[in-house]
Amino acid sequence: MAVKETSSQEIQFYFIQGIEDSNLIMHQNIEEIIVQCSSYLPDGGDGLLKEVLDYSRAIRENLGDESEVLTFEQSCEMVRTLCELKMDMTAIAAGMLHDLYVSETIRKDICRKFNGSIGELIEGYAEVDTISKQTKRFETEDEYIHMILSVAHDLNVVLLLIANREYLLNSDTVLSRPERRTLADKILKLYAPLAHRLGLGYHKSKMEDKAYEVLHPVRYRELSGKLNERRFERERYLERLILKLKLELQKFGIRPELSGRTKNLVSVYRKMRRTKRPFEQIYDLLAVRAIVDTIPDCYKILAVVQQMFTPVMEEFDDYIQMPKINGYQSIHVLLSDRDNIQFELQIRTKEMHQTAEFGVAAHWKYKEGNRTSDMDSYFSFLRQASSDNGGELSNTPVENFFNLKLLQNDIFVLTPHGDLKKLPKGSTPIDFAFAVHREIGIKCNGAKVNGQIVPFNHELKNGDRVEVLTANKTMVNQDWVKYAKSNKALVEIRRHHRKEMRNHSIKLGEEILPRTFRKFKLPWTHENLELLALEAKVKSVEELYVAVGSGKISAQSLVHKFVEVEEEPVEETVEEKVVRKPSPKGIKVGGIDNLMVNFGKCCLPVPGDPIVGYITRGKGVTVHRAICKNIRQLKMEPEREIHVEWESIIDMKFAAGLKARITKADNFIKEITPVFGSRKVSLVNYKFVHSGGAIFCMIVVEIPNLKELNNVKKSLGRLRTVKNVIRMQYSEFKSLLTSAPVSLSKMIK
Fold first, then answer.
1. Spatial separation of the C-alpha atoms in residues 202 and 171, rounded to whole Å
2. Alpha helices for 251-375 (secondary structure H)
3. Which of 95, 186, 436, 534 has the most C-beta neighbours closer than 10 Å?
């Protein structure tokens, strides 16, 4: 049979006809959406909506089929869902344009062409959508929902996300089969529960049933067949049943709010699994809810319906007399009519309904396992606000909801494998490393954020993908406490340092005790060590080492007491009084106090000076000023360095020296006495020195901190006879400490 060739004129005709048909479909879509919006928006927003739709169509045509954006028809399908949710014009416009952020040029053009709110909404959606798609694993449903709300900062973003997922699930052309199954799994676990908590019961049921069909097509067909056999009859039956109840109850002066429903497929399946019953034994496929003003009316309704129908007593629950643990109250009774058709009746007061829907016993909770959650109060707030606005979420004043502390205090980041991790706001790679695992944290040697190496103090943001670089050894540094924000990281860092400091203390104790034994010519035996431990009231020899090495116990005084050797007490010299060891409250070592600490006599730091610490054999930890000339030599042994810091409050004084260049020595001391008389500073000693034709006064003081020392320097510098004042090193004023201290009162005389 010969095949008729198509002429060029016919081809052109079909091509033009195709364009006309396509344009006709587009115009129909535009008109349908405008009509939907006009049905609930006061002004309809026709102008803006038409402009957005035309712009969306033009951009999509220019991008071509190779782009990943939706077609115009597909985008319109999603926007219809937003119209069903009664979204405002800004949200609908954002929904129409949400997938067009494929280049910086288009993004800027959208922000320029339309109002800023549309751009902000699309930006918010893009951020949530990106994190959501990258997330492969998460600990709990609440954590994932918390992430969405924290990142979204706007209810419209959340609703846009739900509408997008609902459309993608229903479309069999946008996603591949594996992608659609993955989405269906997330719908059941995450998006449907989120929609339910927001009060979107209709969309929750639609998404659940479709997701179940995608994941379990055979089981779905079997169960839906059983449900659909008599669905129309059940719905008609409900209408007649509600009318019958209303008329009968009116005879007794009761006018309740009556509503009915039929269970969706997934709800039926879950009940079959939970109760281990076959489909034929699921009796509450039909349900009616009656809401009245008072508790007596609840029981009046119960009495009336028990006369009208046959109650199934084993399916009767009075949660008014015996409320559930979570506070839920209602009467549940299963009733059977003359034709043996069964339905469940729930009877409650308006207050009980309010509690069940919006309070601690929200209805979605007992349906999802009667569990409690930190998110409860926030969803209760949101659903209550929605109810107050006629059920229209787009008019809900949600700014307070999204400003609540729960949504401000956390961020959500991802591992390289897509595991979702919740961290406090302001967290760094250190927090992330410990959130992954303790061993990862203590061996953390660096981090990459979104593929770029970052420092430990880098602040993480929502959606960051973080990779931890580890070493083969422990890398914990006490400085990490400055960067860590999470309790877990801080606890682990401090625990590790306590362990390290204990090991340091044991090593120091093992060095100090033998020397002390030799000094007192005491035999170095295990028996003597155990006796010494008993004398010190510690549990073991190891604890004795810790106590001695940390400075809690003086080895010399302990051994001295143990051997009962009496010596004449020696009076403390002037130098020993001034250049003394700090009290345990002066310095923290590795974040821990009560360790044996000495100040380096080479530099004599005072509180406020930048300091470093080094472990010194037999002497514990020696503290130096960060600018001390001996630090260079000590840095040759970095393993001896240890983090030290000043206590916030130190009740003691420290020695310091000042060198003042003066014009004349006559009456200089009398001039400076008011400086010390008005401050918490003691003048220890002084002397005049002539050098190169200049006169200097070397002054030694006892001072509480660097701030006071600088104040003294400023006060001296303001005197007429003083040219300049500098701080001296210990070696320059050491000789002044060997003579008797001066008396300020005698000097004045």
1. 18
2. 265-275, 295-308, 350-358, 363-367
3. 95
Q: Is the dihedral of CA 679, 685, 690, 691 positive or negative?
A: negative
For the record, the structure tokens of 547 come out as 């106590």
At 664-677, the pLDDT tens digits run: 887 787 788 777 76
Q: Are 589 and 599 in contact (CB under 8 A)?
A: no
- Joined together, the tokens standing for residue 389 give 């606005």
| Cα gap 364→138, rounded to integer Å | 21
Please, which contacts does 201-210 make with residues 24 or more away whose CB atoms are closer than 8 Å?
203/81, 203/84, 203/85, 203/162, 203/166, 205/264, 205/266, 205/267, 206/166, 207/165, 207/166, 207/169, 208/264, 208/265, 208/266, 208/267, 209/264, 209/265, 209/266, 210/169, 210/170, 210/184
Name residue 655's beta-bridge partners. Answer: 702
Beta strands in 522-610 (DSSP E): 587-589, 597-599
Instruction: Provide the pLDDT confidence category of residue 744 given band limits of 50, 70 and 90.
Output: very low
Tokens of 162: 């739900």
Inter-residue long-range contacts of 684-688, CB under 8 Å, 24+ positions, other chains counted:
684/574, 684/578, 684/655, 684/736, 684/737, 684/741, 684/742, 685/736, 685/737, 685/739, 685/741, 685/742, 686/736, 686/742, 687/736
Angle ∠(463,469,474) on CA atoms, nearest 5: 130
User: How many residues make up the chain in this entry?
Assistant: 749
- The side-by-side arrangement of strands in the sheet containing 611-616 is 597-599, 620-625, 611-616, 641-642
CA proximity to 705, closest of 609, 613, 610: 609
Rounded Cα distance between 73 and 25, Å, is 8
More confident residue, 172 or 355: 172
pTM: 0.60
The number of beta carbons lying within 10 Å of the beta carbon of residue 376 is: 19
Candidates 183, 149, 143, 138; CA nearest to 165 is: 183
- pLDDT, position 145: 79
Q: Comparing C-alpha atoms, which of 90, 97, 98, 87 is closest to residue 37?
A: 87
Helix (H) or strand (E) holding 188: none
**How far, in Å, CA of 167 to CA of 673, rounded?**
85
Please check whether residue 97 is in contact with residue 121, taking contact to mean a CB–CB distance below 8 angstroms: no
Kindly report, residue by residue over 177-224, the tens digit of the pLDDT. Answer: 899 999 999 998 888 888 877 767 778 888 999 999 999 999 888 888
Residue 609 three-state SS: coil
Q: Are 700 and 733 spatial neighbours (Cβ–Cβ below 8 Å)?
A: yes
- Token pair belonging to 650: 């130190």
What does the pLDDT read at residue 305? Answer: 94
Tokens of 2: 């010969």
DSSP state of 645: E
Residue 69 to residue 75: CA distance in whole angstroms: 9
Q: What angle do CA 420, 423, 427 make, to 5 degrees?
A: 125
